[in-house]
């Protein structure tokens, strides 16, 4: 992410993204298998634009609210 957007993510955002990755392991595989059987595109699971927008909302919250509490 840092390389793509030329800035590091807030550490709480990184933790949340890691938790999402770890918690979605089997569910994503099951969803992909179902989509393949139904011949649906992977974009039907979650729109990549929605995922990206959600990540940036969380990042902004962490930077503006959480960080100011610890300064």
Automatic annotation (TrEMBL):
The record's PANTHER family line, in alphabetical order, gives: PROTEIN RDM1
Q: Which is a GO BP term held by this UniProt record?
A: gene silencing by siRNA-directed DNA methylation
Name any GO cellular component annotation. RNA polymerase V complex
Protein name, as recorded:
Uncharacterized protein
Question: Which sequence ranges are marked TM in the entry?
Answer: none
- List the InterPro entries hit by this protein, alphabetically: RDM1_plant (IPR015270), RDM1_sf (IPR036319)
**Source organism of the structure:** Gossypium schwendimanii
- Entries under SUPFAM superfamilies matching the protein: Hypothetical protein At3g22680
């Amino acid at each position: 992410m840092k390389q793509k957007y030329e800035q590091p993510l807030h550490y709480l955002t990184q933790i949340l993204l890691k938790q999402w990755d770890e918690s979605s392991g089997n569910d994503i595989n099951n969803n992909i298998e179902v989509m393949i059987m139904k011949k649906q595109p992977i974009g039907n699971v979650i729109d990549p634009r929605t995922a990206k927008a959600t990540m940036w909302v969380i990042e902004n919250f962490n930077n503006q609210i959480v960080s100011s509490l610890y300064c």
